[in-house]
Amino acid sequence: MSLPHAILTALLEKPSSGLELARRFDKSIGYFWSATHQQIYRELGKLEQGGLIRALPAAAPARGQKKEYEVLPAGRAALTAWVAEADDPRPVREPLLLRMRAAAVVGTAGLAEELQRHLDLHRRQLAEYRAIEERDFPPERDSEEDRLRHAVLRGGIGLETFWTEWLTETLAAVGEQAAGEQEPGERGNGRA
After folding, report:
1. At what angle do helices 37-49 and 18-27 cross, to 10 degrees?
2. Residue ranges of the chain with per-residue pLDDT less than 50
3. What pLDDT score does 72 carry?
4. Which pTM was predicted?
5. How, if at all, do strands 16-17 and 68-71 pair?
6. Displacement of CA 150 from its chain's centroid (Å)
C-alpha cells in the first residue's frame, strides 16, 4: 500500500504532473520505492477518484495539456495516519542470496562474475548517494525536514556500504574456494 503514500508525499513536497512525478521517482523516491510510469498514472487516477488529490485548474484551456495534481486535506490526513501506523520489517527477498545457496549445492560456475557485477552496481549506487549527500545536505541545511530526508539518504548509504563490503568479502571467499578446488586436481597430476 506504499505507492499511494509515496505519491502523496511527493505531491505534498511539490504539486506535479504525472510525468514530473515519474521523473522525480526516477531521481529520488525511486531509490527506495520504485514504480513504473504506468503504476504512477494508475495510482494518480485512484487517488483522484478517492478524493485524496485533485487536478489543479489549468491557467488557460489547451489541448493535450498535462494535468498537475495537488493533495487535498483528506490526502494529507491519510498520509498523516499512515506515518503513525506500525509496520514490521519485511523479510529479505534477495535473488543473489538464493543464487548463492543454490551454488553451494550445484557449484559456483559463473557465481564470481555475478557477484562482481553486483559489486560494481552497488559501488556506482553508493557513489551516486554520496554525491547527492554532498550536493544536497551541506551542514547549514538543518531543518527537521532536511534531517529526515538526510536520514533516508544515510540509510541508503549504509545499505550500499554493507553490500559493497559484503560482496568484496564474498568474492574473496569464492576466489579462495576456487583456488582450493584446483589444488587437489593439480596435485593428482603431479604438479604440486
Report:
1. 130
2. 183-192
3. 96
4. 0.77
5. antiparallel
6. 15
